[in-house]
Amino acid sequence: MTAAEAQAPRALTVIPAVGPSGLAAPAVLVLPGGGYAKTADHEAEPVAEWLASLGIHAFVLRYPVAPHRHPVPLAAARQAMIWIRNGGHGLKVDPSRVGVLGFSAGGHLAAALSVQVPAGDPALDIRESVPDLSILCYPVISFVDSVHQGSVDNLAGEGAGPEILRQLSAELHVTPATPPAFLWHTADDESVPVSHSLAYAGALSRAGVATELHVFPNGIHGIGLAAGTPGAEQWTGLCAAWLRRMGWTA
């Protein structure tokens, strides 16, 4: 076991799957949003508890945010993925079914994991740190088109050059090896335009990667589980059905 596998990531909350404990279960790393300035509590443990209710082990990571810059958050997420897949958390995790779920800036971090943006550490930039599927909720995707300036400034730094902005634009790095994704967004999101999800879904489709995208008419940015928001409140049920079709839940 390497040092990266053995060390439990900091600021990680573990919520075991509900149901029989005899068999290995899938696991999902949950990455809350917050524009790389904070991590939002309502997109953290409540979401993990929903995943656990589906029979999925959930791990919430409060990754480093500003003043930390890239690649610090990505390195933390990669370390968490490796630890979930191979670590000593004591849960029976199926190492072939370890995914990621992210909201907003957490969705950007999830997409960066999925398209294998390098963290610059050979111990972390390995296959075990790449998710087997992703769930992206009103994600920040592009750092070059219709950008969420707060996320750009907090992660890349004010005045970041075009090379780093392209490196951090997930839609530009999708390949046939990118894992399948479930995405949802609202059409009237004024903080992170729906074009971000459309761009990533389009790139996945062109690469021949399975994707499911739902765009709901209304809902402000950051609605999390979206309870009480007409239309968008369907996303958890739609996602649960997708996970069943992917063979992750019964």
H/E series = HEEHEHEHEHHEHEH
Q: What is the CA–CA distance across the termini?
A: 32 Å
Helix content: 25-40%
Query: Approximately what portion of the residues adopt beta-strand conformation?
Result: 15-25%
Number of helices: 8
Largest sheet: 7 strands, mixed
Given the C-alpha coordinates, what overall shape results?
globular
Mean pLDDT: 95
Point out poorly predicted stretches. Answer: 1-6
The helix/strand class is alpha/beta
- Total DSSP E strands: 7
What is the radius of gyration computed over CA atoms, rounded to a whole number of angstroms?
16 Å
Strand order of the biggest β-sheet = 1-3-2-4-5-6-7
Give a quick precis of the structure.
By secondary structure, the chain is an alpha/beta fold.
Please characterize this protein's 3D structure:
- This protein is an alpha/beta fold and 250 residues long.
- The chain has eight helices and seven strands, in the order αββαβαβαβααβαβα.
- It has helices at 3-6, 45-53, 72-86, 105-114, 149-156, 162-167, 195-206, 235-245, and strands at residues 12-15, 25-31, 57-61, 93-103, 134-137, 181-186, 211-216.
- It has a seven-stranded mixed beta sheet with strand order 1-3-2-4-5-6-7, sandwiched between helices.
- β2, α2 (45-53) and β3 (57-61) form a beta-alpha-beta unit.
- The longest helix has 15 residues, at 72-86.
